[in-house]
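Per reviewer request, we include the raw input and output of the structure prediction for the construct analysed in the revised manuscript.
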Amino acid sequence: MYSDKEDLYNALEYYRKSLTIQLHNMGENHPELATSYDNIADVYNEKGELDQALEYHHKSLTIKLNSLGENHPNVAESLHNMGVLYIEKSQFDKAEDALNKSVRIKLKLVGENHAITGMSYASLGQVYAIQGHIDRAYKCHHKVLATYLENLPKTTLYFQIAIEISVSHILRNKSWMRP
């Protein structure tokens, strides 16, 4: 049995081999390569190698934009994932930009009251809170709560995550709670 570190090393090795085969058979811009790049990015993220994770997510995003167009759920997902990585790297302006783009796409596709839009609002609210934009953070977290209260059963994981994130941000800074 492999340790977690060995599992990540093996996963990365196999994903790279798969990518090499795909590149040889399909060329550099085939849409299926985006999934391989995302898988490699996820392994790098798990290893804590955020620069490499972002590099592979960016490659994936470029392919998705070229093959799917900018208003596609997979593009929104890539932007969200990159935004979260930028938060982890404390690059909050880049995180804000990626997450805002993700939210805009999701709003066009599924509207404001959908779980996937709520997840991006939660991350965007986190960025705003860190940046000290308390009013914007509050608005994002309020949208998250409203979305999940309206649409999801109280037992779902999305609902639990949204409540936990939103309440923790609100309680960290009581000045958010204005009379």
